[in-house]
Amino acid sequence: MGTPHRSFVSHIAVQIAAFLGTLVLGCTPVAAAKLAVTVTPASLQAHGFSMQVEDRPDGMRVFTLRRDLSRAPSVPADSGLRIARDATLRIVGAAGVLGECEVAPDTRNSKGTVTYRFVLSRECLAHSSLMLAEDQDYADPTRERLIGGGTHFHFDLSLFVPEVSKAGTPRSP
After folding, report:
1. How many domains are contained in the chain?
2. pLDDT digits (tens, 9 = 90+) for 92-138
3. Which residue did the predictor score with more confidence, 141 or 52?
4. Counting CB atoms within 10 angstroms of each CB, which of 73, 133, 151, 158 has the fewest?
């Protein structure tokens, strides 16, 4: 009579131990963390970026952002992974959000850099921003996207045009 009871208790103990083991293993942290970084003119170089802003005669501003790939994250060649770069421009005017669009990277004629170039009107400079995401992804483009770790760089574009205030008007000297 004591043997079946012990067998049942042992069986339950094994199931509880297996369940607790699953909980412990299932709750371990993963290394797919995303880091959010706000980039300012003072921190551009520290993060491996450079930015130029040029005036056009029609009142538009041309932004050229360069990423030094030697300062960017990388993955081992045999890992089956790559660093996916996605840049999203958020355009905000006096009436609010006017739109969001992808900014394609230019890797032609640039050794070790990726260049992003876009044009904004002066009226949209005060609240518009660029988000550059550098995330781990599968190297095989036919596979689904990997939700891997990475860094998302936020650029408040008004900070790179000193004469523009948050109200959208020129700052007084």
Report:
1. 2
2. 998 999 999 999 999 887 688 999 999 999 899 999 999 999 998 88
3. 52
4. 73
Q: Report if residue 118 sits inside a domain.
A: yes
Query: β-pairing, 81-93 with 113-121?
Result: unpaired
Sequence-distant (≥ 6) Cβ neighbours of residue 51 within 8 angstroms: 41, 44, 63, 64, 65, 66, 155, 160
55 Cβ contact partners less than 8 Å away, ≥ 6 residues apart: 61, 62
Q: For the CA atoms of the chain, what is the radius of gyration?
A: 25
- Look up the CATH number of the domain holding residue 125: 2.60.40
Segment (H or E) for 16 = helix 2-26
Residue 167 domain flag: no
Residue 145, token pair as written in the block: 């996207």
CA distances 44 to 49, 52, 88, 135, Å, are 5, 11, 18, 19
Residues 9-66 pLDDT 10s: 565 655 665 555 544 444 444 456 888 999 999 999 999 999 999 999 998 999 999 9
In a 10 Å sphere around its CB, with 0-12 CB exposed, 13-18 middle and 19+ buried, how is residue 49 labelled? buried
Range of the domain at 99: 32-160
Same domain, yes or no: 5 and 36: no
Q: Are residues 11 and 83 in the same domain?
A: no
